Amino acid sequence: MATTKIPEQKVILCGEYGVGKSSIFRRFTNNTFVTATDRQSTLGLDHFDKIYTVGDKTLKLQLWDTGGMERVASITSSYYKFAEAAILVFSLDNVSSFHTLSQHLLDVVTYAENAKIFLCGNKSDLEGSKPQVTDADIETFCEHCHNLISGTYKTSCKLGVGIEEMFTDIACHLVESNRSRLELQSMEKHGFKISPREEPTEDSCLC
Amino acid sequence: MDEEYDAIVLGTGLKECILSGMLSVSGKKVLHVDRNKYYGGESASICPLEELFSKFGAPPPDESYGRGRDWNVDLIPKFLMANGQLVKLLIHTGVTRYLEFKSVEGSYVYKGGKISKVPVDQKEALASDLMGMFEKRRFRNFLIYVQDFDGQDPRTWKDFDANTQNMQALYEKFGLDKNTQDFTGHALALYRDDDYLLQPAITTIKRIKLYSDSLARYGKSPYLYPMYGLGELPQGFARLSAIYGGTYMLDKPIDEIVIGEGGHVVGVRSGNEVAKCKQVYCDPSYVPDRVRKKGRVIRCICLMDHPVPNTKDALSTQIIIPQKQVGRNSDIYVSLVSYTHQVAAKGWFIAMVSTTVETDNPEQEIRPGLELLGPIKQKFVSVSDYYEPTDVGLESQIFISESFDATTHFETTCLDVLDIFKRGTGEEFDFSKIKHELGDEEQ
Questions:
Q1: CB contact under 8 A, A76 and B235
Q2: How large is the average pLDDT for residues B149-177?
Q3: Which Pfam families does the entry link to (chain A) (predicted)?
Q4: What is the pLDDT of residue B443?
Q5: Is the pLDDT of residue B356 over 60?
Q6: Which of A100, A130, B107, B439 has minimal CB crowding within 10 Å?
């Protein structure tokens, strides 16, 4: 296969501690689920790339997890930088995780201005017959934020429901919005990543 | 907070964040606390602009400054050497994945009231207006000697023992005049004063090599600067630490560092909570009784709507004013970054003039730097003490970093960090402990 560069899109997970961001991350990376008691195993997880094909376009979704920084401190503003999409995650069985979303939304629009924003209600398996957060609540929230939200999803990491559909849909949105923007984006605006230097060949005199 | 940790790190300045990252990666249980609401301490970039103005007690900026949150203004100006220690640390720790950089466009040196590009290779040496024709040839020969110099191969030494003979002797060997010595020592080897002249030449040769190797990496100048400001650096290392299990707490005042029997640290108290620990790593502001004042640095932040004159409209620049040129004992540094680094609103530039304070009138001392800048819209001056630890920590297990000095790059920063790590853990940092499958599993 030809090695043309596939556009890379940073996608970040935002939301309260314990709503299942790392579970979404884990489903995304290797489609597994661990229970709360195994939490320690999130150590060392940073971000993960996966390629999606939408029509004739391919793009690489690069999903980032918070690293648990939101537990007692705030997340660094760096986390948001260069993000093309942000998924605001709340737990369908926890109404307060839904109500704090506006704060997370504010962080996203402040630090990642250009990011598309998506809403994800996780733990749909715990929703039950009397949902803590109703569809009407979600709709109202979206209206209140002036339609900043590009898509809403319900997922269950435990059952593995809705995750893949969500990412495929996000990939569609990003391809759509990038079509025009990718061409406009001048290299000027961007810096570069530093990488290890290739071993110089004339290093033979080191011995 | 009421738990037991291997190490508690106080302050989220760059040095503390690098240490926190290194400790977490090494498997230590780390609690990282800052009394401020934001990451970065002294090495934060201030955003929005309104905050910078209020920090210095100025009335809020008018609308000509654009959107306040497009600004990220560093309090301490520094650049990264492209082939320097910090870049190595960023690469080895993988923190480079959180950052993007730009090359600094120009590197200049001040001579006789005007600035000239720092010549680094033979071609530039011959074209430079810093030297007369014969001096150019001597300088070119000197550069070739340094380039070819190999510490392991005595044939490249040309009858000069750089390990025992001093730098003054090497200059004399090539017949370089005082002016050439001046910009070589200060703009290429980046010394702050002239003490190096009497030290073995090998250190200076290595420094000049670092400069030219750095230059070779990304062109234009040997310096790099991160998009969104230097404040991104500590945050990158903080994330590394968090990814490896470090716990973060901001906005948490520290009331006491609790010392146990035998003078060892046993914990840290905030209000009536005590976190237990075996070691504390911190910046000088958390332990005023274990540091001493080493000197003072003046830094002047200048907001401007134009680049520095005579730099070919460079959007980023460094200018070094060697001490002797202006009758001082330490150099004056000028650095410039701009909107192109996402640290200022469109069309704006941030210059910073800094030096080690030598007199009772520090503002007067930086005048030669300010005069190079052209019209300045807004100026913020700060004079800060810088401290060094009086306790190396081997008994107390409290390991204290030095304040940031006036140098314009991070080489001394990294040396301090690596030294603290070694003192604290008894070993050199093992880069192989970083799980590189982090990146490998991306396939």
A1: yes
A2: 94
A3: Ras
A4: 31
A5: yes
A6: A130
Q: Which of residues 118-157 of B touch A (CB under 8 A)?
A: 150, 152-153
Confidence band for B72, pLDDT divided at 50, 70 and 90: very high
User: Residue A134 in contact with residue A121, Cβ under 8 Å?
Assistant: no
Sheet with B223-226, edge to edge strand ranges: B80-81, B223-226, B101-103
**HEC per residue, B35-99:** CCCCCCHHHCEECCHHHHHHHCCCCCCCHHHCCHHHCCEECCCCEEECCCHHHHHHHHHCHHHHC
Answer whether B91 sits within 8 Å of A194, measured CB to CB: yes
Is it the case that residue A182 has pLDDT exceeding 60?
no
Coil, helix or strand at residue B310: coil
Confidence bin at A207 (pLDDT 50/70/90)? very low
| Interface test with chain A among B35, B98, B232, by most A beta carbons within 10 Å | B98
Contact A178, A60 (CB under 8 A): no
pLDDT digits (tens, 9 = 90+) for B253-296: 999 999 998 899 999 999 999 999 999 999 999 999 999 999 99
In chain B, whose CA is at the least distance from the CA of A80? B98
Domain A8-206: CATH superfamily, name plus number? P-loop containing nucleotide triphosphate hydrolases (3.40.50.300)
Domain limits of chain A? Answer: 8-206
CA separation for the pair A185, A89 (Å, rounded): 29
- Which DSSP helix (H) or strand (E) runs through B187? none
Cα gap A78→A69, rounded to integer Å: 12
Segment A86-90 shows an average pLDDT of: 96
User: What domains does chain B contain, in order, with CATH numbers?
Assistant: 4-43+231-292+387-431 (3.50.50.60), 57-105+295-386 (3.30.519.10), 118-218 (1.10.405.10)
Asked if A41 and A104 count as a contact pair (C-beta separation under 8 A), the reply is no
Please check the confidence at residue B206 and state whether its pLDDT lies above 90. yes
User: What's the CA gap between A78 and B281, in Å, rounded?
Assistant: 23
pLDDT of B439 reads 41
Q: What is the least distance, in Å, from the CA of B248 to any CA of chain A?
A: 5
Residues of B in contact with A49 (CB under 8 A): 442
The predicted pLDDT at position A206 comes to 43
Answer whether B436 touches A (CB < 8 Å): no
Residue B209: strand, helix, or coil: helix
The pLDDT assigned to A46 comes to 83
Bridge partners for B332 per DSSP: B321, B355
Position A183 pLDDT exceeds 60: no
Instruction: Report d(CA B357, CA B329) in Å as an integer.
Output: 10
